[in-house]
Amino acid sequence: MTITTILEKLPYGEPFLFVDTLEYIDEQKVTGSFTFRPNMDCYKGHFSGYPVTPGVLLTEVMAQIGLVCLGIYLTGGPEGMTFGLTSTNVEFMRPVMPGEKVTVTSEKIYFRFGKLKCRVVMTNVQGEEVSSGEIAGMIINPR
Amino acid sequence: MDKTALMTTIKEVVAPYTKNPEALATLNEDTDFIRDLKINSANLVDVVLDVEEKFNIVIDNDSMEKMINVRSAMEVVENKLAAP
């Protein structure tokens, strides 16, 4: 499956699409990136007068690239498939400011009985680790 | 492996995933993983993977779907261990 096809099959839309592109994908591993738009609504209040990307959105980027893109690749992304986030165990090391680009690399720990669990690392453009952890989700196949 | 040892091992495997310590303390063959131990379906996958590792067996989809309580889990393990 090509990267273009995976991006087309992503079940997200504005304002909750957090994947710009994928740089690499195979059955074990995916790398992708996203740039946080400075005009995103969340920056108006997180924090007031001091915009920093919320950790939940860093987690969301990690999940969309690391779990959902890889899940689409592994299953072929059949029509009607849905995803459910089941667990996150993520640490945050550095703040991500408006306009910053982050790169996510995710390695499959296992994909068994519909559950995909990955070790996910996010870095900034300086190559510094921003956040990392383990994220898992269930892929619910319509058939 | 006798049944008591098998049940003890299964009890050890499910312990980290259960949300109901009372049901774990009184675990028996009829204990249901979801209804009694309150293990969610995502963690049930981890239970099955831990059972595989503990007994060095491979559990297929059909067997996984049967593993709803302690009795059926013990049967799956016994059958896999007895298989040539």
From TrEMBL, chain A:
Pfam families: ApeI-like
InterPro entries: ApeI-like, FabA_FabZ, HotDog_dom_sf
GO MF, any single term: lyase activity
Keywords in alphabetical order: Lyase
SUPFAM superfamilies, A to Z: Thioesterase/thiol ester dehydrase-isomerase
Domain ApeI dehydratase-like: 26-133
Name of the protein in its database record: Beta-hydroxyacyl-ACP dehydratase
Originating species: Chitinophaga fulva
UniProtKB/TrEMBL annotation, chain B:
Domain Carrier as annotated: residue spans: 4-81
InterPro entries for this protein: ACP-like_sf, PP-bd_ACP
Domain of life according to the entry: Bacteria
SUPFAM superfamilies, A to Z: ACP-like (SSF47336)
Coiled coil (UniProt feature): none
Stated name of the protein: Acyl carrier protein
